[in-house]
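Hey, weird one. I pasted the 3-oxoacyl-[acyl-carrier-protein] synthase 3 sequence into the form twice and got a warning about non-standard characters only the second time. First submission, copied straight from the form history:
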Amino acid sequence: MAVKIKGSGSYIPTQVVTNNDFHQFDFRDENGQPLKDSNERVAKKLEQITGIQERRYITSNLTTTDIGTLAAQRAIENAQIDIEKLDYIIFAHNFGDMKYGTDQSDLVPSLAARVKHNLKIQNPSCVAYDVLFGCPGWLQGVIQAYAYMSLGIAKYCLVIGAETLSRVIDLHDRDSMIYADGAGATVLEVTDEPGGIIATKSCSFTADEAYYIHFGESYKKEPQQDTRYIKMLGRKIYEFALTEVPKAMKTCLDDSGVDINQIKKIIIHQANEKMDEAIVKRFYELYDKSMPEHIMPMNIQKLGNSSVATLPTLYDMIVNKQLDNHSFEKGDYLLFASVGAGMNINAFVYQV
């Protein structure tokens, strides 16, 4: 018995936002003072560090549920299964549905319940619920689905990761240039084929790290303003990720029994190009090895950081051969890994 990805799908928003589009923004520091660097220089530094040249935003008529539904429909179509056979719908996100022009999150009913409604699934035994686990949410949803399926209480699970970060960014904070929107989904099945998910690892660091990513006030101080936006302590996150993520990846790989030389691709959360490269290099150093070429696919350059959507979107793009120099075949070993708000880290080893 194995738990494998039977189908995948994604939704890439149509609105392209380039770094040049931020040149007229009024960026401030955390004290509310205008930045000393020009916006052009700020954008150039951002691209050098994160690799981001463009990001995608959803149009004003869409919500997180909408794009999650679109990705789910494509994954189901790709999997070619009867939707009434789904046992679980697990929707990973962090901010619910934020309608355009509002600053209030809508979380009731759950986004998973809304997707089930949109898909017109009648089966009441199909359980729909949300996962709020920071950027590693989709991966954690897969780990939960794997647990259900390993116990024999589910055969088909739909796991969605969707986020609309454009609705929760502070336009006076330069970090707003990192974030993007997107959705990805996968259908998992129990099968007699070899491979699938072999080992998993999850961690939550909350003693000192819980608020490295948090909600805070705008950097442009305005009287009687109580709206909050996504904020992060970038340097602390970078140092934390470089220390802890490689260790979690190593634990997961060691538990799997798969040799590091057998790993074909590392599918890592698209947070920051330099940080991701440093994490993977540090991971290989734990085995006294150098990071191989073409081991780490990236789509952050054009899609930005869409939180829970980066992993399933990246996987779907590789499946559909939309990334140069990146593909995998039946029998290949993949290592998925993510880090994000909480601070949470997770990973799983997978054989295609």
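That's the output from the first submission. The warning seems to come from a hidden character in my clipboard, not from the data itself. Residues 234-256 form the longest helix (23 residues).
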